[in-house]
Amino acid sequence: MTTPPPKGPKKPFRPFSKPGKPFKGRGGRVLREPAPEFATGTVLLYGWHTVSEALRNKDRRIRLLLATENGAKRLDEEGIAHQATIVPVRDIDRRLAATPDAVHQGLFAEADALDPPHLDTMPAEGVLLLLDQITDPHNVGAIVRSAAAFGVKAIVTTNRHSPEATGVLAKSASGGLEHVPFVTVQNLSRAMTELKDRGFQVIGLDSEGETDLDAVTLREPVALVLGAEGKGLRQLTRDTCDTLARIDMPGAIKSLNVSNAAALALYAVTTRLGLRR
Prior knowledge:
about 280 residues, alpha/beta, CATH 3.30.1330, Alpha/beta knot, 2 domains, 7-stranded parallel sheet, 4-stranded mixed sheet
């Protein structure tokens, strides 16, 4: 048996460009200085709707924007001002390596989180959504998207047991984070009591609620409370609601995914309150 020859030394890493010369991406466009690594505490945004809406938001501070040539071209065609660093698609893929199946559509940004309002500064009007320990970022992101579509004034979550408004959540929200503020509170039931004192009608959505949502007498402002998948509303949350309402379904399956339930409830409530005109 022949012994294979010993392996030689590894080839040294060669940079994409010669020292002192800038690296050119596809199409010959010159890149600026190498992009920094993720900054601690920043929000990660990727995907067309997510990044383009962030760029349109004057209150959103973008720290870093990476775009492929096609991504930058689309921003230009839409008239969205930007200062993107043009990179090959693999550079954005590498940034999102820890997020399987991330669809970035040639756009990636690091940004500062938006300043959250305080609960007591929210006007007593329209509809609020309160999330009782919903931790799945896909579900919360989908809820944010529906909230933006139906003009929800704010989403209230707890400091603990809720996902950060970044990455997967931001992508699932499809730009909704720029339109619906997040209010974080220490104690959800205490926040509910405060809202009730300010005139909000607090309605908990529960598959075993005592009445159908369509039969509840509504008055503005309304706070809809949603519970986590499987667990639903916690007991103290249930006890603090003015009403526990269910959404009666005509089919064989009587319950919905929480994000679907949120969209359906928002449609019903905003229609009956005349908020969709």
